[in-house]
Design a protein that fits this description.
It contains 6 helices and 12 strands. About 3% of the residues have low confidence.
Length: 247
C-alpha cells in the first residue's frame, strides 16, 4: 500500500438543512483517524469540525463504524448578501463531492435572526424565558425564535395631551411613541389603559401560545403597576440635567 492509498479520503456533502451544512468523510485505510472538514462562505473560513458524529445509515452501508458524519453551523446574518457561496473541503485539502453550492438568503431568515438576537439580549438582562434543556447528543438546529409581544401603558393618553401640557406626565407620551415604533419591528405591540386589569390577561394568552411577553410602563415610578405576573419594565422620563442621589 502506498501513501496515496493511505491518505485517500472519501465522503459526501449532503447540503444545507435547518441551519447546518451536513455530510460525512473518512479514510478507508485509516478508519480510526478522524477527518477534519472546513466550511468557507464567500471565500472566508466560517467553521471547522471533526467528522465524528454517529450515523446509523453510514454503518449500515459499511462506512467504518458509522461515526464519520459532520454538521457545520451556518447562520444567516441579517445583513447577508442575497446569495452565499459555500465550499466544504477536507482541512487544507480537496473539496468534498457536492461540496460547492449556493444558498439563497431570505428576508424571513434575517428577521428570525434579528428576533432571536433581541431575545438573547433580553434573557441576559431578565433571565431565561424558557427552561434549559439538556444538550442533544449531536448538533441540532435552533428552534424558531418565540414571537415577541410588548404591552405598553402610557400615563398620558394622546387624547389628553392638550390638557397635560406642562404637567410631569406630559413627556411620557412622546417617549412611548418612539419606543412603540421600534418595538413594532420586533414583534406585536398591545396598548392598554388599565394595567391592573389588562396586562396579565394578555400575558397569559401569549404564554398559552408559547410566546414571550413584556410589559413596559411609561409612567412616573409611583404610577407603575407592581405585582403583575408579566415581567415589567418601568420607563421613566427625566427632563433634568442631573439625577438625584439622596433621599
Amino acid at each position: 500500500m502506498d501513501a496515496t492509498d493511505a491518505d485517500k479520503i472519501v465522503g459526501q456533502t449532503d447540503g444545507f438543512r435547518q441551519g447546518y451544512v451536513e455530510g460525512w468523510a473518512w479514510r478507508p485505510e485509516r478508519p480510526a483517524e478522524p477527518v477534519i472538514v472546513q466550511m468557507l462562505v464567500n471565500g472566508v473560513l466560517q467553521a471547522e469540525s471533526t467528522a465524528c458524529i454517529a450515523r446509523p445509515d453510514l454503518q449500515t452501508a459499511g462506512i467504518g463504524n458509522g461515526n464519520h458524519a459532520f454538521a457545520l453551523p451556518l447562520a444567516i446574518e441579517p445583513d447577508a448578501p442575497p446569495l452565499l457561496r459555500v465550499v466544504v473541503r477536507v482541512k487544507d485539502g480537496p473539496v468534498l463531492p457536492s461540496g460547492e453550492f449556493d444558498i439563497a438568503t431570505s428576508a424571513e431568515e434575517r428577521a428570525d435572526l434579528a428576533r432571536r438576537r433581541s431575545i438573547d439580549y433580553l434573557e441576559q438582562v431578565f433571565g431565561p424565558f424558557t427552561a434549559a434543556v439538556p444538550a442533544p447528543p449531536r448538533p441540532q438546529p435552533r428552534p424558531p425564535a418565540p414571537r415577541l409581544n410588548f404591552i405598553l401603558y402610557c400615563a398620558t393618553a394622546d387624547s389628553a395631551l392638550a390638557t397635560a401640557a406642562g404637567m410631569p406626565e406630559y413627556s411620557y407620551y412622546f417617549v412611548m411613541r418612539g419606543f412603540r415604533e421600534v418595538l413594532r419591528r420586533l414583534g406585536t405591540v398591545h396598548m392598554v389603559r388599565d394595567p391592573a386589569r389588562e396586562v396579565d390577561g394578555i400575558a397569559a394568552a401569549c404564554a398559552a401560545r408559547s410566546e414571550t411577553c413584556l410589559f413596559l410602563s411609561f409612567a412616573p415610578p409611583q404610577s407603575t403597576e407592581l405585582g403583575l405576573r408579566c415581567p415589567t419594565i418601568p420607563v421613566i422620563a427625566w427632563e433634568f440635567g442631573t439625577i438625584p442621589t439622596g433621599g
